[in-house]
Amino acid sequence: MLIDSHVHLDDQRFDVDRDQVVKRAEQSGVITMIVPAVTATTWSKTKKITDKYPNVFPAYGLHPYFIDQHEAEHLEQLHNWIETEKAIAVGECGLDYFLPELDQTKQRLFFERQLTIAKKFDLPIIIHARSAVEDVINLLKKSGHNKGMIHSYNGSLQQAKKLIDLGYLLSFGGAVTYPRAKKLRALIGQLPLDSLLLETDAPDQAGANFNQQRNEPSFIIEILDTFTELRSENRKVIAEQTTQNCQKLFNLTL
């Protein structure tokens, strides 16, 4: 019984065989998927898809990668959408400093506003933090918001401990399956199991066994196996605990 805590099932690359993708996930033991929307134009598609499949749940947000597409009115629309729709979280949102062309000032403004929305509706938040973990930590402290997940975590051990202390869980995906990712793999064995989540980020970030393929939720087994190897713990224990962590964070009753 596994939960894919971050999968873009609404991505157009799944339009041709989404039913089969969901079926393969179920056959692999994935009982739940969390689908975070990334732009205002995709919220309705995310809603339609998550309404179709039992135990597939939506979050709605404005992703920093698409900051040039976001308008000020989208923040008000997000507030209204969250108020009327069944969302289990706000996001995907956050900061992305990896690409210098993305306006960092505008990113911070949109992230702060989404933190405010999450706090108002008492929802967890799904955070993208690429080359920007320290600024994410500082904005979280400033916001007073204290529950959510950092997806595809790639910061330091010290930053991880700060985030856990602030109330956030850390999610890991395909990147940990590559032997060359030594620092990232070391984190898996150093962090408490009750602070960890599994994800695929499909259709992106496929693991080592599926390199160059379209990623999908059924591939989460590879990530579980990697956790088992790196933590030297029972596979079933890791599966059960990470599932419980996700259920608790998103207030899921399955």
Describe the structure.
There is one protein chain. The chain is α/β, with parallel strands linked by helices. The chain has one domain: Metal-dependent hydrolases (TIM Barrel), CATH 3.20.20. The protein has nine helices and eight strands. It has an eight-stranded parallel beta sheet with strand order 1-2-3-4-5-6-7-8, sandwiched between helices. Strand 3 (56-60), helix 3 (72-84) and strand 4 form a beta-alpha-beta unit. Helix 3 (72-84) packs parallel to helix 4 (104-120).
Layout: helices, strands, pairs:
Layout: E1 2-4, H1 18-27, E2 30-36, H2 43-52, E3 56-60, H3 72-84, E4 89-96, H4 104-120, E5 125-130, H5 133-143, E6 148-151, H6 157-165, E7 168-172, H7 182-190, E8 196-198, H8 220-231, H9 235-250
Parallel strand pairs: 1-2, 2-3, 3-4, 4-5, 5-6, 6-7, 7-8
Helix pairs in contact: 3-4
CATH superfamily: Metal-dependent hydrolases
Number of helices: 9
CATH fold category name: TIM Barrel
C-alpha Rg (nearest Å): 17 Å
Helix content: 40-55%
- State the end-to-end CA separation: 11 Å
Brief characterization of the structure:
The protein has helices at 18-27, 43-52, 72-84, 104-120, 133-143, 157-165, 182-190, 220-231, 235-250, and strands at residues 2-4, 30-36, 56-60, 89-96, 125-130, 148-151, 168-172, 196-198.
List the keywords:
single chain, 42% helix, alpha/beta, TIM Barrel, eight-stranded parallel beta sheet, 8 strands, 254 residues
